[in-house]
Amino acid sequence: MTVRALYLEDLTVGDVWEGGPVTVTEADIVRFAEKFDPQPMHLDPSAAQGRFGGVIASGWHVAALVMRDFVDQKPFGDTPLLGLSVDQLYWLQPVRPGDILSIRREIVAVARSRSKPDRGTVQMRMTVTNQRDEVAMSFLNLIQVPAAPPPSRENS
Q1: Are the beta carbons of 152 and 90 closer than 8 angstroms?
Q2: Where do the MaoC-like domain residues begin and end (predicted)?
Q3: Given Cys at both, which of 45, 123, 135, 147 links 109, Cβ 3.0 to 4.6 Å?
Q4: 111 φ, ψ to 5°?
Q5: Could you tell me the residue ranges of all domains in the chain?
Q6: Model confidence pLDDT, tens digit, residues 42-61
Q7: Are 136 and 129 in contact (CB under 8 A)?
Q8: Could you name the CATH architecture of 8-146?
Q9: Separation of alpha carbons 149 and 25, rounded Å
Q10: How far is it, in rounded angstroms, from Cα 120 to Cα 116?
């Protein structure tokens, strides 16, 4: 399925894209943690029992899953995007083996660059919920988006 490329002019505050479902497995949690966040609550079911009641996913793992879903879903089509910042990143509920995550992406701001009018920024609020509709993670993402290319001229 080809998705139409979206440019700055195509985007408005309030636009929403849904992502997921993303199922999180214990094997994936452990594999990510071994490489990138080797803390006991992500690796060892016995060590995680006390405080967390079992193994939980690294917040960075959840963020990486959200990024992968964004790339796979291609809500902007093939338009080249550049991430500029992540703000107000909150991990609100632990993500556990078997959780099924849904991602809501909502545009909260659109602005054309004054100094480089061939591009602008879009700020999106990402909200990640589990199968119980509990918010597991949320953040604001600032993305650079190109303006639409000028119409091509054909020589006559």
Answers
A1: no
A2: 21-125
A3: 123
A4: -145, 130
A5: 8-146
A6: 999 888 888 889 999 999 99
A7: yes
A8: Roll (3.10)
A9: 42
A10: 8
